[in-house]
Amino acid sequence: MHKVTIPQSVIDDVIRSRGREHVFDTLDPAKTALIVVDMQNGFMLKGVAHALCEQAIEIVPNINRLADAVRRTGGMVVWIQTAATQETLQSWSVNVEMNGPERTAHRFASLGPGTKGYELWAGLDVKLNDLKIQKTRFSAFIHGSSNLEAVLRAREIDTVIITGTVTNVCCESTARDAMMRNFKTIMVTDANAATSDELHNASLAAFYLKFGDIMPTDMVIASLTKSARASAAE
Question: Annotated active-site positions, please?
């Protein structure tokens, strides 16, 4: 598990600008979605992954706990799967050029729909009523990547909890774009994973400073549970 360290200067700036350390600490479960990004064999399984992040295995229990809490309190769970498709060879040609032919071929073998790498990690607690959404860019919210925003809007979701791998690429990209599409956005500090503590912490700090909130798993679950109990008591 990553050792999370957010610079005090970042925390102080957040408090100055927002009035408190956690601006989204009161969650409405019915309007909340847990977004689980790229927890696939193509990033987690040795011999299959084209961009291995072994640290992602360590966050599986927390993601499962969050998924259970979101379901129990009335929210929705969405599993995002990256797909390497033929269409992206042209529409995202800059990424192809940056990766080069060998890495591109490995990515397609690892993340092509129907491959072992495209499948979600076996240890994840995926339920029948959960949603699975395919994306073709780092961000699930950017135009042309997926229909995630439309799905959330149709269910009147206004808050998203971002988890998955890797923190500093697909998770942060999805989280930043969620905020800029006007969703209240939280990145979970111990339910995102990168390839190093340095990358993980830098990503969380940059996001926290301008784009949304960051909280550990226990805080998110406590907020959901408290809100659900308050609603039941009304």
Answer: 38, 135, 170
